[in-house]
Amino acid sequence: MMMLCLSRFFTCVILILIPMISIAQNRYDVVITEFLSDPTPAVGLPESEFVELKNRSTTDYNLHNWNISNGNSSATIKVDYILKADSFLILCSSSAAASFAPFGATLGISGFPALSNDEGAIVLSSGTGTVIHALQYDKSWFDNDIKASGGWSLEMKDPDNPCTGIGNWTASISADGGTPGKKNSVNSENPDPEAPSLIRAIAVDSVSLVLIFDEPMDSAAASDISHFGISNNEGSPVKASSVAPFFNRVELSLQYPLAPGKLYTVSVQNLMDCSGNEIGMRNECKTGLAEKVKPGDIIFNEILFNPPSYGYDYLELYNRSSAIINCSELWIAARELTGNLKDPVNLVTEERAFLPGEYLLLTENPDWILSHYPNTDVSRMIQIGSMPTLPDDLGKVVLLNESADIIDELDYDHHWHSPLLSSENGVALERIRT
After folding, report:
1. Which of these, 93, 103, 39, 105, lies nearest to 68 by C-alpha position?
2. How far apart, in whole angstroms, are the C-alpha atoms of residue 214 and residue 417?
């Protein structure tokens, strides 16, 4: 407050100085730095879910009408709350606010969205709908099976590296099970030096492609059509759009339609991730229009049914046809001795092209596979929620299409192993001819 007086008339006016509060929002100025998705059994924190925000900018923000979402349901902050520069805020349900208040600045929200224990999304948006920060998580981020079972939060290591997923998150090491409202127990410098990679491209239809990257991309650069090229297709795309909220996808609209039965190469250049790393050598991939899968198009090529202790089975598929197959059309199942199929499982829940001559590996735990078979191409792995039962002695596994037609069937026996092996544990069986 300041008093201003006019000496001639001795009239004074009181001026109230109000701090400048930004109404503009910049992505990643405010980031999600910690969350507790499974509060039971409690370690030292309240037995309720929370999300911690940090204002990593030099600007104060009014969070009125900002939104927190789990991807399915969301809640809006209905009050004026000034999140000061370089400060933390605990978001939780209204009923849990009093329990978290002793830990730091807390704001209870009506309808606070429930966080999935196993895997899920958290999206923070401004009042204008701008995505400020978003992440997709799963239990592997804990890197600790005991802490993943409940009561421990996941903490971000380096708030200045907000776009890196599992590489910048881990379980809290605080004796309380988390550090809501203050600097994280795992806080450390953890910059992102890696160039982003183009993983694959999906042809939604003849004039629409979706490009998938391994991390969030700079949305401005990803919306410039001159940064994209498609072989055997005249001209650049007519439109490019970065897809919110995770920005690891780009939608392309083509000027000329893709031809059935033809492979195309999509290439990108001058794209950057949110840390400013420019895309490197992994900047192109094959794509094309998918065709209906037929019996014999795809075969089982390798199987590990007797992994070492605490290991995981895997199945390898090979596309020996000349057709692009949509993985969402494929199912796997075990066949019981009675001949019945048991618990068919869809390979993927979203579109994914299976290219001619390509191999795909199916497993419940890609991290275990990579740790024991480090030469495995992670881009060709598919994580299956529940693999078919693969007995250690003999069994049957079936590949089907969505009409339940058999594409391939493998009737395996552990006697196929060489008798010279001292142990069959961890040794896969491979097909000799494809």
Report:
1. 93
2. 37
- Three-class secondary structure of residue 139 per DSSP: helix
The dihedrals phi and psi of 10, each to the nearest 5 degrees, come to: 55, 35
The rounded distance, in Å, linking the Cα atoms of 256 and 237 is 9
Q: What is the pLDDT of residues 152-168, one digit of tens each?
A: 999 999 999 999 999 99
Q: Where are the beta strands (DSSP E) in 81-214?
A: 82-83, 88-93, 106-109, 119-125, 131-138, 154-156, 169-171, 198-205, 208-213
* DSSP β-bridge partners for residue 109: 93
Q: CA of 292: how far to CAs of 195, 327, 346, 355, in Å?
A: 35, 10, 16, 13
Per-residue buried b or exposed e for 80-111, using 16+ beta carbons within 10 Å of the residue's own CB: eeebeeebbbbbbbeebbebbbebebbbbbee
Q: Which among 228, 211, 212, 291 is positioned nearest to 259, based on CA atoms? A: 291
Residue that is written with structure tokens 């068919």 in the block: 344
Q: State pTM to two decimals.
A: 0.85
Inter-CA distances, 360 with 244, 314, 357, 384, Å: 28, 10, 10, 12
Residues 425 and 187: their CA atoms lie apart, in Å, by 40
Q: Report the C-alpha gap between 290 and 356 in whole angstroms.
A: 11
95 band by pLDDT with thresholds 50, 70 and 90:
very high
Measured in degrees and rounded to the nearest 5, phi and psi for residue 142 equal -70, -35
